Amino acid sequence: MTDRGARAAELAANLARVEERIRRACEADGRARSEVTLVVVSKTYPAEDVRLLAGLGVREFAENRDQEAVEKAAACADLPLVWHFVGQLQTNKARSVAGYADYVHSVDRIKLVNALSAAVSRRERPSLNCLIQVALEKESGLGEGRGGAAPAEVGALARAIAEAPGLRLAGLMTVAPLTGALAGRPAAAFDRLIEISRDLRTTDPAATMVSAGMSADLEEAIAAGATHVRVGSAVLGVRPALG
Asked: Which residues form a coiled coil (predicted)?
């Protein structure tokens, strides 16, 4: 078997295991498998892996660094893919990200809302889907300096996105917190995100997307009601430690 063939077989086996985990989690919660979208986080892995996974039926991919993402999206431009940007985003990268991303999961401040709106307007592209990143640890007064908005800031950010030309409020995103009252309790953290989502939908009923859960905790996210799970290492393999 060629190296490419071996890698394709490895990815197929990994993907099958993840799909089975998602299927079982949906079944346990009485949800249809179609209610949960798998987004494969392809950061640090080559465009060739994206192509192999696309051949296995994966259509949604996520990146967290603009330079890598823009190159990978260009290399796979012939494929019918949906690109999600999930990393912390500086305003000076908004124009670049707006060129390839279909979804930005990490909107956490008004300044970034304005930068993305301006970028979309300049590129004369269809609307950009935005998710507010919720930092649940900030509800406990922790996590200052980390990305994400405090739960109390969600309403103001939602209004800003809804009013910004070229942007569409898609929903919310979170990462299970490492500090605060919900640290080490992903199920409780995701339940809290669903509560915030429910409140948001009273004023923004179309903001139905809930992006939560990764390789280690996708089952808890699905049980809570996540619509999208962001899975990297369980599909692509454990990433090497950065030097």
From this structure: none
